[in-house]
């Protein structure tokens, strides 16, 4: 515990004596390591330490937030008094008796990253860099990034919640750039999780780097993507970027309550095909978006958002749940003690179906097979999206055809969910740092192989196609 219970009670009572009907303190101690390799050399090896506390006071519809990196009792009581005054409410002091909620999941860390020598971490990055560069002489640039974080938190509030937690995450990212003097293509691969150094018992850095490099070279040799409306098969290995961006954000309760979501007011209504179920789950062992407790002290949980096509639930933090007189879904997250919590996804995915991935491909005579998604843009108000395809292939007579480059997918998230006609039983995860309101948090997303009968595919005009 980062502070004694007596100090936590004193800080919370000081906040309530100045105003407000709810007070919370979030204490954090974070240790990080970051290693980067560019231009065939280690460019940076950095380690960091940060600690601090965020204090929040809520009175009705008003919220005040302040933070300090001084964890002394006196400093935090002073901060609590200032934050309490800011809500301009009648003081509501009361006795606070702490209880500790139980976690729904336990994370076993076999080897903490702070027990691994920096030299070993640097060697892992070098191995990945060398493996990517050895794939092909057309690999012009390789960047490799390694990072780990050990985050200790103590969360206490005036309702009596008291939680201690430790989050340990490791991540490796490889980006390869290939060029033939005329075209430039990239290949990207990443791995990570709520895990320690044991991540690399199941993830081979060299093979991961070779995969990224091969993807860049293959896209260099690919033909320009066709344009027009066509069936799109999204492989499980593509990850859940589309479900995260085109659907997930629209199911976060703050956007719903502000009427900035296409899903606002649609709970209980049909919003997707019968075969589509969407889940957000913080309790999956080892995944990048998993945790025992959210950043408000609520146990992480599995929440069915859409079940057999019907919208069942949104993702709530304390404040959005309070507005509706209900309980949080354990989705209150923040980047650090300097940030107030907001509703955020954890590991969001389309649940596996009963179909066979190979059969979906065989039954699609023509279209686009997406094996890796790139970046994109989404309008959460209406669900419109545009995504890049990082690795795609033509489907010809139910078989995987030639690779294509420059493809984009344009459509509307809710409409796509409604017309999905095949869902396979596989499930492939991807990971990333999700940004919202200036905060980034680790997330996972996934989907099985699915088929979208018709989607607008944007292609490119190759130099050789010009008349």
TrEMBL record:
This is Protease TldD. Keywords: Hydrolase, Metalloprotease, Protease. The gene is tldD. Signal peptide: none annotated. GO terms for biological process: proteolysis. One of its GO terms (molecular function) is metallopeptidase activity. InterPro entries: Metalloprtase-TldD/E_C (IPR045569), Metalloprtase-TldD/E_cen_dom (IPR045570), Metalloprtase-TldD/E_N (IPR002510), Peptidase_U62_metallo (IPR051463), TldD (IPR025502), TldD/PmbA_N (IPR035068), TldD/PmbA_sf (IPR036059). Belongs to the peptidase U62 family. It is an enzyme of class 3 (hydrolase). GO terms for cellular component: cytosol. Its EC number is 3.4.-.-. PANTHER family: METALLOPROTEASE TLDD, UNCHARACTERIZED PROTEIN TLDD AND PMBA. Residues 112-220 form the Metalloprotease TldD/E central domain. Residues 228-459 form the Metalloprotease TldD/E C-terminal domain. Residues 23-80 form the Metalloprotease TldD/E N-terminal domain. It comes from Neomoorella thermoacetica. Pfam families: PmbA_TldD_1st, PmbA_TldD_2nd, PmbA_TldD_3rd.
């Amino acid at each position: 515990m980062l502070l004694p219970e007596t100090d936590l009670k004193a800080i919370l009572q000081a906040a309530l004596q100045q105003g407000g009907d709810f007070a919370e303190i979030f204490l954090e101690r974070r240790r990080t390591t970051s290693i980067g390799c560019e231009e065939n050399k280690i460019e940076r090896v950095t380690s960091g330490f940060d600690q601090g506390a965020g204090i929040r006071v809520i009175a009705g519809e008003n919220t005040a937030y302040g933070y300090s990196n001084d964890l002394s009792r006196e400093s935090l009581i002073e901060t609590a008094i200032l934050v309490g005054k800011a809500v301009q409410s009648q003081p509501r002091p009361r006795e606070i008796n702490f209880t500790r909620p139980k976690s729904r999941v336990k994370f076993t860390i076999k080897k903490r990253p702070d027990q691994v020598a920096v030299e070993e971490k640097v060697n892992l990055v070098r191995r990945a860099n060398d493996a990517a560069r050895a794939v092909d002489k057309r690999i012009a640039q390789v960047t490799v990034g390694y990072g780990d974080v050990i985050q200790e938190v103590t969360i206490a509030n005036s309702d009596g919640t008291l939680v201690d937690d430790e989050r340990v995450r490791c991540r490796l990212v490889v980006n390869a750039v290939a060029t033939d003097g005329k075209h430039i293509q990239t290949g990207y691969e990443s791995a990570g999780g709520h895990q320690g150094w044991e991540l690399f018992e199941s993830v081979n850095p060299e093979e991961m780097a070779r995969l990224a490099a091969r993807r860049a070279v293959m896209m260099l040799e690919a033909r320009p993507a066709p344009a027009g409306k066509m069936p799109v098969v999204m492989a499980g290995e593509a990850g859940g970027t589309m479900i995260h961006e085109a659907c997930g954000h629209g199911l976060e309760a703050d956007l719903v309550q502000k009427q900035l979501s296409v899903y606002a007011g649609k709970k209980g209504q049909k919003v997707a095909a019968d075969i589509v179920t969407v889940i957000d789950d913080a309790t999956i062992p080892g995944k990048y978006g998993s945790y025992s407790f959210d950043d408000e002290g609520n146990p992480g949980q599995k929440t069915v958002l859409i079940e057999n096509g019907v919208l069942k639930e949104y993702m709530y933090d304390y404040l959005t749940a309070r507005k509706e007189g209900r309980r949080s879904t354990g989705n209150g997250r923040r980047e650090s003690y300097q940030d107030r919590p907001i509703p955020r996804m954890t590991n969001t995915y389309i649940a596996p179906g009963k179909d066979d991935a190979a059969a979906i491909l065989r039954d699609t005579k023509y279209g686009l097979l997406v094996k890796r998604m790139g970046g994109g843009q989404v309008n959460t108000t209406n669900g419109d999206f545009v995504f890049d395809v990082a690795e795609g292939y033509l489907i010809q007579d139910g078989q995987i055809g030639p690779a294509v480059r420059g493809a984009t997918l344009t459509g509307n998230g809710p409409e796509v969910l409604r017309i999905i006609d095949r869902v396979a039983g596989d499930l492939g995860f991807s990971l990333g740092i999700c940004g919202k309101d200036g905060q980034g948090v680790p997330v996972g997303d996934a989907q099985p192989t699915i088929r979208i009968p018709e989607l607008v595919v944007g292609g490119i005009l190759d130099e050789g196609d010009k008349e």
